[in-house]
Amino acid sequence: QVQLVESGGGLVQAGGSLRLSCAASGIILRWNTMGWYRQAPGKQRELVATITPGGSRNYADSVKGRFTISRDNAKNTVYLQMNSLKPEDTAVYYCNTDPARYWGQGTQVTVSS
């Protein structure tokens, strides 16, 4: 059974930083393209960052230059470092494979202005 558990969200002021973690069981993350998704209230879920098994990274234009996705193979964990946060980054953040197959509970990120 695959479990992806997100953590690290919280309330932060605009311009601040957070690091999200995604701990996995039942799946080897380095064998999969992994992504961070987010869903803001009243909006569709969007893919904001991906990392391939080879380590290639891609980002949505809205977060490029501010967010960094990374992976720790030994810990079977994926991270999302978020800097220069903006109020429009407020959302529930989820990690998943790309394409998405295993939805967890997500972690709430709230950025105040």
Short summary of the structure?
By secondary structure, the protein is mainly β. It is built from no helices and ten strands.
Tell me what you see in this structure.
The protein has 113 residues and is an all-beta fold. 0% of the residues lie in helices and 50% in strands. The protein is built from no helices and ten strands. The strands form two sheets. It has a six-stranded mixed beta sheet, with no helix packed on it. It has a four-stranded antiparallel beta sheet with strand order 1-3-8-7, with no helix packed on it. The chain is globular.
Features:
6-stranded mixed β-sheet, 113 residues, globular, single chain, mainly beta
Topology:
Blueprint: E1 3-7, E2 10-13, E3 18-25, E4 34-39, E5 46-51, E6 57-59, E7 67-72, E8 77-82, E9 91-97, E10 107-112
Give the overall average pLDDT: 96
Helical residue percent band: under 10%
Q: How large, in whole angstroms, is the Cα Rg?
A: 13 Å
How far apart, in Å, are the first and last alpha carbons? 40 Å
